[in-house]
Amino acid sequence: MQITVFCGNKLCKSKLVIDTGAINLDNPKVQCSVCGQYSQIDREFIAKLLLKEQNEKLELQKINIGFLIVHDENTKSQTFTLKTGRNCIGRKDADKPCDIMIETQDAYMSRNHCIIEGKMDRSGNIQLILYDPGSLNGTYLNENQKRLGKEDKVYLEDGDTIQIGKTKVMIKLIKSAKNSEEARKNVMNLPYSKTVIIQN
Fold first, then answer.
1. pLDDT tens per residue across span 158-192
2. How far apart are CA 30 and CA 24, in angstroms?
3. Which domains does the chain have, with CATH numbers?
4. How far apart are CA 99 and CA 157, in angstroms?
């Protein structure tokens, strides 16, 4: 990724185009091609740019990072693969498709209900982040009676249960299940989570 910065020399102030991949994060500085002076670049700023660039690459690669298994009394079992980047989840509908479409009669589940995003953190680990951009009936995590707000973003762990509308799904990370069939079998042996009562 190339960015433009200004030379730190007050008498120069030249625009410098630099490649973020060539910057040493331990001592981030750039030499001006006009006056020759070295200028320090904010380490936090560069780290954020590099992380953003890495996550953009991951989103394009669509790497398998886990599984979403429908585990609910009223909806048939279904297994979906979670990938890096944005995974939009909702009720199956040909007119308004999303990334993961659950076949269900659950009228409380929106067609584009919630998002699970697979992103890399600063340590290089992939994290799953759940958020609800504004579904009508809400998204709940691990039987918590409080629905996620529009501004809430929560990190998911292996075995977490998400209630989407009235339907419950479970998260299995790739480290605990090598493939979708193993993930499904692991979840099918578990008891159903308690359903949160939706109050409108």
1. 999 999 999 999 999 998 998 999 999 999 989 99
2. 10
3. 2-61 (no CATH), 64-188 (2.60.200.20)
4. 21
Backbone angles phi, psi at 57, to 5 degrees: -65, -45
- Contact at 8 Å (CB) between 88 and 112? yes
Beta bridge partners of 102: 91
Nearest CA among 120, 122, 53, 128 for reference residue 87: 128
Per-residue model confidence as pLDDT tens digits over 127-163: 999 999 999 999 999 999 999 999 999 999 999 999 9
The SS3 call for residue 59 is helix
**Two structure tokens written together for 48:** 């954020």
Joined together, the tokens standing for residue 22 give 């060539």
Pairing of strands 100-102, 85-91: parallel
Chain centroid to CA 154: how far? 10
**In contact, 148 and 131? CB cutoff 8 Å:** yes
Instruction: Answer yes or no: are the C-beta atoms of 20 and 2 closer than 8 Å.
Output: yes
What is residue 200's predicted lDDT score, i.e. its pLDDT?
62
- Residue 34 has φ and ψ, to the nearest 5°, of -95, -55
Whole-structure pTM value: 0.77
